[in-house]
Amino acid sequence: LSSEEVRAYKPHVSVFHETCARLGIEAAEAAYVGDTPYQDVEGARHAGLRAVWIDRHGFAWPDDLDPPPDRVSSLAELPELLEA
Question: Which residues of the chain fall below pLDDT 50?
């Protein structure tokens, strides 16, 4: 799925909702892993998905946003996080 197909760009909720629709799942059943606080994490949160921030470089979370409940430094951490 590309933003051009949806005619919207992250963080617009339609990008996340269309992705879920194509997967045949509800937003509440999905986890979205992204590396940008505003476009990925906030977009997913506003769309009703579980938002996971992948922070590979130890960056500080922006002060103007609530931190995500889930943060990983590697995709290898995802299976354990999602099973919990």
Answer: none
Sheet containing 70-72, strands listed edge to edge, beginning at the edge strand earlier in sequence: 31-34, 50-54, 70-72
Q: With contact defined as beta carbons under 8 Å apart, do 13 and 43 qualify?
A: yes
**CB–CB of 61/42 below 8 Å?**
no
**Residue type for 51, please?**
A
pLDDT of residue 55: 97
pLDDT at 81: 96
pLDDT at 70: 96
**Contact criterion met (CB below 8 Å) for 70 and 51:** yes
- On the 0-12 / 13-18 / 19+ scale of CB atoms within 10 A, 83 is exposed
Nearest to 18 by CA among 2, 41, 40, 37: 2
